[in-house]
User: Fold this.
Amino acid sequence: GAGVSQTPSNKVTEKGKYVELRCDPISGHTALYWYRQSLGQGPEFLIYFQGTGAADDSGLPNDRFFAVRPEGSVSTLKIQRTERGDSAVYLCASSLGPGLATTGANVLTFGAGSRLTVL
Amino acid sequence: KQEVTQIPAALSVPEGENLVLNCSFTDSAIYNLQWFRQDPGKGLTSLLLIQSSQREQTSGRLNASLDKSSGRSTLYIAASQPGDSATYLCAVNPDSNYQLIWGAGTKLIIKP
Assistant:
């Protein structure tokens, strides 16, 4: 697609429920990133995919968080047993591939985010 | 552990003024640094990327500088306009991928 698409844009759920957030990256982008942004703070890295595999999942806060990208395109971030502290905007971004081009051609493009509110 | 700080947290200036936003980081071993713009309800937009070997980058009315040894970067905005109102974030990249480490941002308001 023309940009990075994230759904849903807003999700309100109750504590303890299971949530899935979807990211559809730019066509042809092999690298996909998930970040989480709490109110008044900068984004926090969660996980990075290169193709179908998670190249770095060191940012996932605990084992309630899991992400997949089975066909190397769309990714789903899954949160089990949600807690109020999980409330944040979850941002997805994609880029052409690993590494950064010095010309800036391999720019990182963000989606508009999915705002998750856990009551 | 790398930490990124942005000061001030908020800034309000009249239209037409030149202004500087500041970003500092604690570990000088960075691959590059980026400045982003964030508008409410929209995604982050990359403004400028400075490689660790570079001192500055320019795009239109924006100029970003990098002093790696002192752990500082500045974003200079010339002749500010109301459309420049947004939150500006700097992010440090520790390696060649995009596991960025972010500041909390500076919320900029340009008054007409």
